[in-house]
Amino acid sequence: MLLSRKFVSDYIDLDENLTITDIAESMTNVGNEYDDASNLIKCTNLVTGEVLECVDHPDSDHLHCCKVNVGSEVLDIVCGAPNVRKGLKVIVALPGAKLPGGEIKSGMIRGQASNGMLCSIAELGLDNKFLKPEDKEGIHELPTDTEVGIDAIKALGYDDEVIDFELTSNRGDLLSILGMAYELGAIYDKKVKDIDLKYNSNNDDVNKVFTVDVKTDDCTLFLAKKALNVTIKESPDFIKERLIASGIRPINNVVDISNYVMLETGQPLHYYDADRLGDTLIVRNANEDEHLTTLDGIERVLSTDDIVISDKEKSVGLAGVMGGLSTEVEDDTKNIIIESAIFDSIKIRKTSKKILRSEASNRFEKGLDPKRTYMAMERSCALLEKYADAEIVGGIVEYNNSDVKDANIDITIDKIESVLGIEISKEEVISIFKKLAFEVKDNGDSLNVTVPSRRRDIKIQEDLIEEVGRIYGIDSIEGRLPLLETIRGSYDKTKRQIKHKLAEMGLNETMSYTLIPNSEVHKFTKDEFTDVTLNDPMSEDRNTLRYSLLYSLNEIYKYNKARNNPNISIFEMGKGFFKNNEGIYTEELKLGVLMSGEYELDIQRESVDFYHIKGIMEELLYFLGYEGRYSLLINDYIPDELHPGISAAINVNGTNVGVIGKLHPNVSKDNVYVMEINLTKLLSLRTGSMKYKDISKFPGVYKDVAFIVDNKTTSLEIETAIKKSGGKLLTNIQIFDLYPNVEEGKKSMAYKLYFQDPSRTLSDEEVMEVFNKIISDVESKLNAKVRNS
Amino acid sequence: MKEKGLEIKNQLLEDIKSVNTLQDIVELKSKYIGKTGVVTGLMKNMKDYAPEERKEIGQIVNVIKTEVNDIISTKEKEINEAILNEKLNKEKIDITLPSKKIKRGSLHPMTRITEEFEDLFVSMGYTVFEGPELESDENCFQKLNLPKGHPARDAQDTFYLKDEVENFLLRSQTSTAQVRAMEANVDKGPIRIVCPGKVYRRDEDATHSHQFMQIEGLVIDKNISMADLKGTLEVMMKKVLGEKTQVRFRPSYFPFTEPSVEVDVTCFKCGGKGCALCKQTGWIEVLGAGMVHPDVLTMSGYDPKVYQGFAFGTGLDRMAMFKYNIPDIRTIYGNDIRFIEQFDRKDED
């Protein structure tokens, strides 16, 4: 909303010493933010002048050398405009003048002195939409009676200042000059002046010649009047100036008046050419696929959600958004029907979102005050009579089903104090309501406040408290900490500890987008699920909520590798989404890890392999209390995106909770290792607890053994066999050497075994007995041979 | 006997000059104090003396023996030291070679800023409450006083789900946690929560990401006021942006709070003097807050005549951007390793 200072000053006296920024800041302090507050024309040093002499430039085929009287002196100015001539009254930019195009300096133009510039309107920086062709083609021609040597911006009537407000959506009342005047009145404690609504009516009754039939609940108030014999011409300067300052292009007096009244009152109006309209207006919902050509010449296809104004045959206007082309007011229009109405704000919002956002629809959307609907009609008639020579037909066509009334609210000082946390006297509260032009009755214990219907945002006590806070100065409230019972705060510690643990292990945490392409959502998992997609994605790349984090992690890997950073050890914790079998949207917390390139940072810079990421997994599961409760399984849970020979399912307490492995060469040609754990599943499973175990005082014995086994025999198989034969006395097994291909199809695996009894020292014989049993059992079970070193 | 002793000692001092190795020491010991050594010989000869002389002779022999021992062990010690020094010299390493680096991990700046807020509020008795990212329109809007068609919905261009258009969405604000927390509280008693989390809006440029993070705070009790809200936000902003930070309230509008305020803090870059970041105003808008609207309380089963409360919500991304001087929000979600790995130390307290 652009607020013109001149316009609002028609209704409130603002102290001349207040700068436009002062006003804008004071509005911000009561909750109305602004983007910009400045002069309408941002130029300096412009004066009016008269061209005393104008001769062709000796060295140019289009330039002219002029002598221009600017009051205090006569200046030599070279001008290239085709319309410059002797006797013309012009806008002169003096040397030092700042224009949007730059600063004007004295100088020589092709050998001739030039001390200033004669200006066109375009050069003053007025928005392009306000410019007529002549404003761009040549210098501006001021009226012949213009005084010489005065401020040219003032002479043009553009000596206005404008604030561009960004209003909150509850303050529809501020989309009007009157609303702004009331708000400023509350701030500066000034009274709002009356609006002139006086006009003469003829003795006829419009109801005899014109009827309105409202056939929808989406219209609560509809008023129509008729104006005869209008003269279509240019608007008076004050109307044009105020429209331009408000960002609306002047067209002709009649159209301008409808916009002018909308700006003043906040009530959009529509004028129909009465002679191109029948004698009845019908307000109804549009038919499905109904066609209507709007004022801008575009054919719109409507639906039943839209509201139209129609005659008996066809629609003639899209209610609240834009009029129809067929009944447009044109230069030859004689008689007009004035419409002032209220349409359902939600319906208008829907239609305007679909078709066009206009000054009118913006106001309908925020909700209107029925009193203003009547006021706008009256004001419209008054201005049409005065500035378009209209004869106003008596009577009014009226449909009123509106239940909007002044709000009446009781409130106590205690309540105000308790919500705002301040001390405030009753007198001060009453004075605030009076500044806002609300009616207050003092009932002793409470105040009864009548809020005019223009403030439709105020309905309950709390709304009034906000008004008190705004005008009192909400920032004057002194902060304090709430006096509350001391209680224990809490947060999800496990989640946080997992992240910290992984960071301690040298992994970098990432945070990527939840939304991924639909083509990727079923990858990196064997789970069957219904994916969750968006109705209105910003792009096809982000149309689905991810299920697995591994797609995102691989994208991060690729992104970094492309930037010469192939050493990536990252993790991310985030949600995976799906719709479960009962159709319920479900989200699960997941942990993804990706490792590639260097992880150990010694001089050898060994590259990551499966056993690194397995180490991360084991460390994490151990940390979380799952030691001895998990295993890696080769089963059908392993997704196709993993290398079939270098991957496993992570199984805890019999449940598959995740996967680990190398990316399949089809997915990545690089050596990339990934792991994903469903934390929602994992953390629901039982864990072991951390309890102190007595440290044995009795020394143990180490024994080393190396087995030669088939290449396909796994370490787990050997360890399991050793453990089984070792019994209680075997307390630790550690693989310490591995030789592949010691013989054809065979490998050697060496283990360090530790035997200990917590209650006594073991004898050599006892240890040897167990040790030998282990060897013979492993040899027989796994077709192994002890390797003799 | 004394002469004999002196002779032995002089001989020893002469011999010791050529002693250089531990092997020489062994030989020297054998010559003087070994089983057949000259000093040992003196002892053996004691029986040749008269009993009355033995005491005096014995003392003299003992002195000789001690002196010989001392001389030998001093030399032995010298040799040992020389050997050790030589060994230490040989072991000298190039301490300027690079260390065996422990790989540094890092926590994402959004995790860090979230934890900072969580820790502060937990210390004041708040519970960290987490709600789902996939929400119903009812929880995200309707129960926050934003019925369908409400113009304030325009401020949040929301992602709705296919098949469930208008009913289910990706939450566009953590304010939905207000509803979740109130509904979850079956006793309808006091509440003190913060809810950090991801939110989503159809918006993307240098200062907006379609995915970002917010933290919502909600306190409901019997005597909660705007003053309590201001005090709480002052504590919060000072903790995150520094002790000198000032907090300013401006009236505003949110459908779920009444009164509503927008909250500015003194520009952390210029300290309030005015700079390009704060557009010369000295202030930066950081959050929206207010007193929970009575209709919102009612819709979630609270009696607004008994309870009142405050709520606030702020963008965590902006806080992280302020705190770590990150100019573009897209950097935060770009996951460039050169960005992420910078967050590898403890934060300043």
Gist of the model:
The complex is a heterodimer of chains A (789) and B (349). Chain A is α+β, with helices and mostly antiparallel strands.
Bin the strand percentage of chain B: 15-25%
Largest sheet of chain B: 7 strands, mixed
Indicate the CATH architecture of the largest domain in chain B: 2-Layer Sandwich
- Count of discrete structural domains of chain A: 6
At the first level of CATH, the class of the largest domain in chain B is Alpha Beta
Largest sheet of chain A: 7 strands, mixed
Q: Give the N-terminus to C-terminus distance of chain A in angstroms.
A: 92 Å
Residue share in helices of chain A? 25-40%
Fourth CATH level, the homologous superfamily of the largest domain in chain A? Phenylalanyl-trna Synthetase, Chain B, domain 3
Which sequence of SSEs, written as H and E, runs from N to C of chain B? Answer: HHHHHEEHEHEEHEEEHEHHH
The largest contact between protein chains, plus residue counts on each side, is: A-B, 91 and 91 residues
Shape summary of chain B: rod-shaped
By CATH, the topology of the largest domain in chain A is Phenylalanyl-tRNA Synthetase, Chain B, domain 3
- Radius of gyration of chain A, in Å, reads 42 Å
